[in-house]
Each structure stands twice: as C-alpha cells, then as structure tokens.
Protein: Oxidoreductase
Amino acid sequence: MSGTVALITGASSGIGEAAALSLASRGASVALVARRADRLAELADRIRGEGGVALVVEADVTSQEAAVAAVRRTVDELGRLDTLVNNAGVMLLGPVVDAPVEEWQRMVSVNVLGLLYTAHAALPHLLAAATNGRRKVADMVNVSSVAGRVARNGSGVYNATKHAVGAFSESLRQEVTGRYVRISLVEPGAVSTELADHNRPEILETIRQRFADVERLEADDVADTIAYIVTRPRHVAVNELLVRPTQQQ
Ligand code: NDP
Structure:
C-alpha cells in the first residue's frame, strides 16, 4: 500500500487502532480520526517509530463540518485519499421499553450520520484516486456488525443502525463500483475492545454473561480482515465479510 493514504475513523482504540497499525505496516500513510487526541498522538508516535507516516486528526464525526474538515486536512497534508475505513461506532444495548432515548440519539449520530458524513466527504477523493492513483482503485470499508445481519431482543436500535450501514453500503456499491471505488462491509462478532464499556452497569453485566464462555476476536483479527479486503487486486471486490469468534452462536 506504499504511496497510498488511508483515513481511519475511530482510530483511538480497538478495531480502528489495530486497522491503522496494520495499514501503516503495509506502507499506507494513515490519518487517525477520533475525539481522544491523546490516544491518537500515542498511536501516531508508535507508527512513526516503526517508520510509518501518521497524521492526528481530532474530530467528532457526528458533526458534518468536522467530518468534512477531517477529510480535507488528510488530503491537504497527506496529498490524496485512497482508502477510508469508516469504523467509529458506539453500542448501547438494552430493551426498547423505557430505554434512555439519548442513547439511541448517540448511536444514530455516530453509527449512521457520522459514517454518512465521512463517506460523503471522502467520495470525491476516492473517485479521483481510482482514476488517477497508482493502484487505479480505491476502497471504502464500512464496519458494521453481526448485528447488521441478525436482529436480537435487547439490541433493537444498535441493530437498526448497523442494518442501515449495510443498506447504504450496498446501494453505494452499485453506484460507484463501475468507477473502481470498492465499497466493502465488515461484520464482526464479539471483539475484545472498549465498545461494551459505555453501557449502563446492568446491561454490561448481561453482555458479560452472554459472552462469558466465548473466546472473543481480538481487534487484530478484524484489522487482518480489513487489510485483506483493501489489498486485493484491482479486479477483485470483497463486498462483505462476516467474522465471528468460532464459539459464537
Ligand atoms: P471501541 O470503543 O474500542 O472504538 C470505538 C471508536 O469509535 C473509538 O476510537 C472512538 O474514539 C470512536 N468514536 C466514537 N464516537 C465517535 C465520534 N463521535 N467521533 C469520532 N470517533 C468516535 O470499539 P470497537 O473498536 O469495538 O468498535 C469499532 C467498530 O466496530 C464500531 O463501529 C463497532 O460498532 C464495530 N463492532 C464492534 C464489535 C465488538 O464486539 N467490539 C462487534 C461488531 C462491530 P473516541 O472516543 O476517541 O472519539
């Protein structure tokens, strides 16, 4: 991937952090986008220490202005944009009845609107890279979830946001794939990250119990999947990958 530029949202922890390290180790210059600038700065130092190029972009993707500015800064400072990993997300589970609606608003804002704003801002640059770039192909990898394939009692709004990501990705794929912008969907099962930690204590306990006997995926396992997708030859588009821990039902 040397000579290419990748922007990764949600790069301050978990899957996004692992994806940034993975793409940087394959030669991509990486723009690291999230709100926690201190975590991004540590990651950027690590990537630079390993000989890579990293740009810290502190941004809240729920603001369209911030998403646009993040993409613009990436292109201004790193020169182009070949790969977008649309990964930032939140998962706040629990029954619909009596749910704190504020949690729904946060999920829709990050998982749906944040992803849409970033995709919209990035697309002209991805199309340009697919036309003029060295590889003549560009990638948008949208991180959905098993929850984007299968709805369950207790995760209705998270399911809704991730199904939205799937529907949007398939429609956009049909729109731009003829111009060599590949739109891919990654759907992980349970991954060992900070994602569940933002839930209310009683919900967190339910999640812990559900996965107590499951050896979860590591963030690196999902990063491998993303790296596989974006390193395929130009004529190969991996549209969708569902990756569960072996023991997850
Ligand atoms: P983490 O909580 O470790 O990472 C989430 C990332 O999203 C953080 O870097 C966070 O950064 C960022 N983020 C959250 N809100 C915003 C915002 N408003 N603006 C910019 N960045 C934001 O969880 P994961 O790595 O597990 O999650 C990554 C993706 O993977 C999510 O889309 C999630 O739904 C999906 N996924 C995860 C699974 C799992 O089991 N862990 C399973 C299936 C899918 P910061 O707080 O610094 O802004």
Remarks:
- Helices lie at 14-25, 37-49, 64-78, 101-132, 156-176, 201-210, 219-230.
- Residues 9-10, 12-16, 34-36, 60-62, 87-91, 110, 114, 143, 145, 188, 190-191, 193-195, 219 surround NDP (CB under 6 Å).
